[in-house]
Hints:
Number of strands: 20
CATH topology of one domain: FAD/NAD(P)-binding domain
Mean pLDDT: 94
Number of helices: 12
Strand content: 15-25%
Helix content: 25-40%
Amino acid sequence: MIALPNDDSTCGWYAALPPAGPAKKLIGPQKADYAIIGAGFAGLAAARRLAELKPNARIILVDAQRVAEGASGRNSGFVIDLPHKFALSHPDPSHKQKLLSLNRSAIAQLQGLVERHNIDCQWSAAGKYQGAVGERGEAHLNHFEHLMKDLGEPYRWVEKAELKKILGTDFYSRAIFTPGSYLMQPAALVRGMGDNLPANVELLEQSPIRDLKRKNNQWVLEGDQGLITTPKVLLATSIFTREFGYLKNRLLPVMTFASWTRPLTDQEMNIYLGELDWGLTPADHAGTTLRMTADRRILIRNTYKHVPKYGANVSDDNRHWIQADHRKAFLARYPELADVPFTHTWGGVYAISRNFTNFFGELEDGVYASACDNGVGAAWGTISGTLLADLVVGADSQALSDIQFVTGMPSLNPPEPFLGLGVKTRIRFEKWRSRSEL
């Protein structure tokens, strides 16, 4: 039995959008040259690239939810060019350079789509701050500076006084600014890309695929009211790849949570005195991510939870204490804005692996996947989906060679109940160890 996405309905990014139009659903038998399951960053990119390479092909992109309701519309709104913190420590310099090149290709692709289709998503070349609160965070920043020097990438230190003018708070001791990251409204960006797919891509929403099986040298995708028959299936399903029987016991489902305020009033902006449109990630990876959006909302993200049953693991009581934790972090930074309420608290599920390795490639004859983004989905999903389409049709490129070089097989997990106990213990330990940075 395939466990479907079970996301909460309180994602602020999605709620801020105008209501979506009617969904086109999978009804009756359909035939396609290519079928893609999952309409997030990876699935949308794969569909666009397949349509470009095979303009006469029929391509069906199917999702269990509406576009932007899932993980791709639930992140903190960063598109980051640098390799992830763990990948930055990789001993092979060429590995890191290839990741950097792939991420920047994704950013260029997304910017081109935003400009071409006039997608209103607060797209901004704002860069990114990596902030420290105390000694532990500053030690991480010193290490980050060393990694930036080794990578040959530009950065600059931002000291407390300057940082306060930007962030509107003196909570942080110092930060490192890197200029290559972009900010955006993720749900708006993802919906905008879904609204502007090529003519030979058919998008089917609210159409969960319940089974995937081989029949007469074709793959059959079975839905509630219809089915798709195709020779080629691309799984852009992240953690849900394991629900189709692939990469089982290799992916860990983790949910991260965020809360945000309503837009600040003019009077509250006069109290805040910081800038608009910036993003800060924690120097200590278990610390707090902080955003001030272009439309005056302050966002807090710092809570992680192991969710083997996805959204079903999160109750209203869970959301209540998660929002309470976020409120503490907000008040520690902005006590003078204590009267500003949170309007939304939400979570999003993503896949990590114990060896921090992404999977990219063919799973079996006619089934391909990009899975396990390890928490950096916007850029990675975009470029991996694009190059997965190249792999499917046999279009060689340096970028395809690069992504094959930096990906591999996620390592096996211990069996339950040891896995769940281990992950929960690790999350609690990291939260305790990073408590000074929260």
